[in-house]
Amino acid sequence: MGKVRITEAGYLYFDFSHIGIRCKEYTELRNTPENQKVMNEAIRKIESEIRLGTFDYEKYFPNSRNAEKFASEAPINQVKGFEEYANTWYKNNKISWKPKVQRDFLGVMNRHLIPYFKDKKVNEITKWNVQEFRNSLAELEGIRKGQKISNKSINNYMAILRRIMNEASEQYDFTTPFTKLKSLPVTETEIVPFSLEEVSQFLEIVPAKFHDYYVVRFFTGMRTGEIDGLKWRYVDFKGKKILVRETLPCNSRRWGSPKTPRSVRDIDMSKIVEEALMRQKERTENGDLVFCTKGGSPLDSSNMGKWVWYPTLKRAGLFRRKPYQTRHTTATIWLASGENPEWVARQLGHVNAEMLFKSYSRFIPNLTRKDGTAFEKLLNEKLSGKEKNGKAEDDIAADSFSQN
Fold first, then answer.
1. Which of 71, 90, 159, 390 has its CA 20 to 30 A from that of 44?
2. Distances (CA, A) of 401 to 3, 212, 377, 397
């Protein structure tokens, strides 16, 4: 916003920004009420013409050293409208993003950001405008019918706008409207892992054709996109490893790289997982995917949740929770069995054990082992029905994990 200021000697001057450059043009007018009125009218007219893109610097300041420079640079440095700038920003940056991120960013831009801000130049967007936009998002309907969009989703949309505006503010030298604007509070997703007994209950109830799919989910810690995108070429029975090299984002048909560089990892194949994969190989070994539909297509995560996961929880009498809790379950079982947190972190694709201590500290009784044997021992003891006193009981493992 342009202003009329006063020099130490008591003369008035203009202070404004033009095509991203701060300009100061001095006058010989003394600081009097009459001169202030003239100058304020002039700066309002200048600001109006700048917004309209019709401002002629030389017309107002013919003797200024800036006039010639702006005459030659204006077509190149002219501040862009939000729609043009956002599309240019997307084009220049998308090469550094994964395909899914590209699609998500473009979708948010076209559905929300551009329709709201398209009539403004980027340097005209104020903090107040940004807050009003955020309030408008809060009125949108969420994924579930009858519920409003979550704060987490709003923050995700705002993060894209923040990136655009921060880059624009650097390019055109104005203060970003996101200065001191905090994100909305978000309730952290509660970690509600299954106990081994609950895992057994679930696997006893789940339809047989999905039994081995969930065995692998519960005992490898693979993300939904990792297991749904798992191909036989990445199953190493000889080395007893599952190689996480590709992922299939939820409800997508485009394979991509794993979530983070650390997510590219080799998961040690426990006996129970190996047996499940061997059974699955008899069903789908002629195709590319380990787990798929009868026609060989990838599983649809939404349909799996709606028709398999949640109905099985209900029939088993288990607490309703999201499928991602299988990953938390794997982590807590490994830690509860005494596996070394560094080994667990590598299996899950974490950089280090810091997150494990933060999220699962109450599940870590000791830190003695690091090779997966404690996990095998726990499975043998718990799922075969052996008590600590060594007294044999019925072998429930066969009923729980050998269904076809």
1. 71
2. 76, 8, 16, 6
Q: Where are the alpha helices (DSSP H) in 146-195?
A: 151-172
Contacts by residues 25-28 (CB-CB < 8 Å, ≥ 24 positions apart): 25/60, 25/61, 25/64, 25/66
- The token duo for 332 is 């807590």
Q: Residue 107: which domain range?
A: 82-172
Q: 62, 77, 92: which is the final residue of a domain?
A: 77
Q: What is the pLDDT of residues 152-201, one digit of tens each?
A: 999 999 999 999 999 999 888 889 999 999 999 988 778 899 999 999 99
Residue 209 sits in a domain whose CATH number is: 1.10.443.10
Distance CA 352, CA 366 (A): 17
| Domain annotation covers residue 43 | yes
Q: From start to end of 185-321, where are the E strands?
A: 235-236, 241-244, 265-268
Overall pTM surpassing 0.85 (yes/no): no
Q: Is the CB of residue 331 less than 8 Å from the CB of residue 324?
A: no
Same domain, 234 and 378: yes
Which 3 state secondary structure label does DSSP give 385?
A: coil
